[in-house]
Amino acid sequence: MTSLVEISGYLPARSESIADFLQAYGLSDREVKIYKQYYGFSEIRTDPDLGMAGQLIAAGRQLKELIGQERRVRYVLQARTMPVAAPYPLNPLHEACEALGLRNALAFSLNQQACASALMSVELAGRMLAEDGDPDALALVFVGEKTFTTDAHVLGITAVMGEGVAAVLVRAGAGRDRLLGFASRIRGEFHRGSRMTAEDHERWAADYADGLSEVISCALDRAGMRPADIDLILPHHVNRLSWLKVLRALQLNQKDRIFMDNLPVVGHCFGADAFINYCSARDTGRLKPGDRYVMTAVGLGATFSAMVFEH
């Protein structure tokens, strides 16, 4: 059994309008209007004065369950979307481990599944802890990142990237949020990601909703559930229109089943979206004890992933 002991998040206080941000990257007024009116983006968060290590540390220090338990953390994983996170020889993950007192943990990064590396890292952390056989051991997963290259700011026609980090404390036994089912599927024909041809983009757009709904349904099946049993979906922040199609494919007509409050005001925070949404849904009472919820992620390349939890 894999469980989430606690989730915390860090979002920069500074907001930047989507219009100003996209125009700086050469998008036309018409393209900006599409991002705002149809995709649902309005603002993103950025912190030009705080680097990647500082954001990881800020998220980690909000974990109440970590205080005094640092020695129990056996693994620290950073789930990254981009293969390059900082200029050599800087290592933000190792800086964060040192600052948080996690000197005895094995620290490493995963990025092969882009934004979907976040859910895979939780799955991997749980498996490694279970194999170790120490019921007191913990793993810490960091998700979300700072846009280090200009290539990472705007992903084709899908999303606008904002800054935000979540810290996820994982254990192999019972915890606050119990993992019920996980599913992942790689669609290698879309391996070029944001550099796909126009024809590939058309096929991607046509297949996306069905691909994601199939993975969600598979995770639900492994949890012994149906789409109608979902209390809440905590989505990744790819444009609003795509989510309407996914809900239709799942035959979920109630739009209140999906938590979309953050999408307009934080943008797509790489792999951290679902975990940032968890913090908001928990703090606002949208996520209640006993609720069964789904976290989703889709990584360019292309990996579809979904996890089902009980809160």
TrEMBL record:
Gene3D superfamilies tied to this protein: 3.40.47.10
InterPro entries per record: ACP_syn_III_C, Thiolase-like
Keyword terms of this UniProt record: Acyltransferase, Transferase
Residue ranges annotated for the Beta-ketoacyl-[acyl-carrier-protein] synthase III C-terminal domain, each copy included: 220-310
Keyword Transferase: yes
Top-level taxon in the UniProt lineage: Bacteria
Protein name as annotated: 3-oxoacyl-[acyl-carrier-protein] synthase III C-terminal domain-containing protein
UniProt source species: Streptomyces silvisoli
